[in-house]
Amino acid sequence: MAQIHFNFVAQTAPSNHVQASWAHPEDRQGAGLYSPQYWCDVARTLERGFFDGIFFADTLSTNTQNVEDAAEGGIPRIDPLMLVTLMSQVTRHLGLAVTLTTIGTPPFLAVRRLGTVDHLSGGRLAWNVVTSYHENDFAALGLERPEHDSRYDQADEYMDVAYRLWDAFPADAIIMDKAAGRYIDTAKIKPVHYNGKYYRCNSLPVMPCSPQGRPLIFQAGASGRGMRFAAQHADAVFALQPEVAMKSYIASTRAAAEEIGRPHPRVFFGIQPYVASTEAEAERQLETLKSRVALDQAVIRLGAILGRDFNDHDVDQPIETGETQASQGWMTAVGNWTKDRSPTLREMALDLAVSPMSPRIMGTPEHVADTLEKWWRDTGCYGFTFSPHVMPGSIDAFVDHVVPILQQRGLMRTEYAGTTYRENLLQQ
Predict the structure, then answer these.
(1) Sign of CA pseudo-dihedral 268, 272, 274, 280
(2) Percent of the chain, pLDDT > 90?
(3) Distance between CA atoms of 207 and 131, rounded to whole angstroms?
(4) Going by fewer Cβ within 10 Å, which terminus of the chain is more open, N or C?
(5) Which are the contacts of 140, defined by CB distance < 8 A and separation ≥ 6?
(6) CB 43 within 8 A of CB 121
(7) Number of CB atoms found within 10 A of residue 6's CB
(8) Bridge partners of 182?
(9) Once rounded to an integer, what is the mean pLDDT over residues 177-190?
(10) How far is Cα 230 from Cα 218, in angstroms, rounded to an integer?
(11) Which CATH number applies to 5-272+362-425?
């Protein structure tokens, strides 16, 4: 029997995806940002709940035009690659996914750094490949931002270099023959000579394949070009879509895969559960978070994500979709926000401030479990990416009260298939 898979999405900043969440009386992330104990506790809880992995969403920089975002918990922002190395030491099965952009880091260095952590974790690393869309990320690195589709053209070439480096150093090249004094069978490793439009690499690889071969590849492209990139490269696709758009998104990703002769991608839809004793209590949790949101900052934050300037936009007028060099996925999600209308700027800004375009599921553990099962069966998705509202309390509530219900129904694992991320992601 097929089962529902879950990943957990986090941010390495004082606030998670909920604006100013660190200031909530029950939230511990702001105080625990630099605490190994805090992050290790999070990892242990997720493994106790049999999640596939923890996924760190990340951007390189912050908006220089909006210093108030920093005041509300947008920075400091620590490096997730360092963090998952720590978390790997207190878990045995939990997958560890980090975001690394294709700008600013040559493919050779990316393969070396990611491969190091993949080995140190026993084959539990995943790489969320992003092309970066925030203008401030490019400005921070002294680069010009290419047009949307060009970023994916560059990323295709980036991945081509990475594949060649992985293929050039198979795991069985490590022989450790002490008698012969040979650590490596040099006949099994090959030099990489790559001279492309965007990247060049001429070197022997220095990082062998890990116990899972190579890091899993995750992607979240939602534009036509982004979906083609995901279909070509991704082991799993993370999607932020409202319920009304989930089926059509699945259909689009499958069509993109079929067009290039690839298997259907494993799609994980973002969710934000509010688990409580009653629906009314869950609603109170949401309203407490919304009451702390500064609307002007929420509007600026939305504008940065969509690549739009809303300074002269009436907050009670609808947002219309249009051309943007920013995130096509976010813009598509705005257009699909409801079946019959576009949201107003106020509605979407406040919604984004407390929920990262992930549909909320609010109520008792039974209601949350029922909804997840229905969406999973109706859409044909592979699973869900859980976004918290209060850290780590929302994880604890889900693991302690919802996971047992799904396990009793045979919809969630009660033991891991193996020790690598790849083995557990593919577990049926």
Answers:
(1) negative
(2) 66
(3) 23
(4) N
(5) 60, 61
(6) no
(7) 25
(8) 177
(9) 96
(10) 8
(11) 3.20.20.30
3-class secondary-structure state, position 216: strand
- 334 pLDDT above the threshold of 80: no
The dihedral sign for the CA sequence 236, 241, 242, 243: negative
Q: Answer left, alpha or beta for residue 28, where phi above 0 means left and psi between -120 and 50 means alpha.
A: alpha
Burial class (CB in 10 A: 0-12, 13-18, 19+), 305: buried
Percent of the chain at pLDDT above 70?
A: 92
The residue to which tokens 């193996």 are assigned: 418
Is the separation of the CB atoms in 331 and 324 below 8 Å?
A: yes
Q: How far apart are CA 239 and CA 249, in angstroms?
A: 8
Instruction: Give Dmax (Cα) for the chain.
Output: 77
User: What are the sequence ranges of the domains in the chain?
Assistant: 5-272+362-425
Distance CA(274)–CA(333), nearest Å, equals 21
- Per-residue pLDDT tens for 203-216? 999 999 999 999 99
Given a contact cutoff of 8 angstroms between Cβ atoms, the answer to whether 366 and 403 are in contact is no
Query: Is it true that the peptide bond before 265 is cis, omega within 30 degrees of 0?
Result: no
Q: Which residue has the tokens 């984004």?
A: 352
Residue 353 has a pLDDT of: 83
Those residues with Cβ within 8 angstroms of residue 347's Cβ, 6 or more apart along the chain or in another chain: none
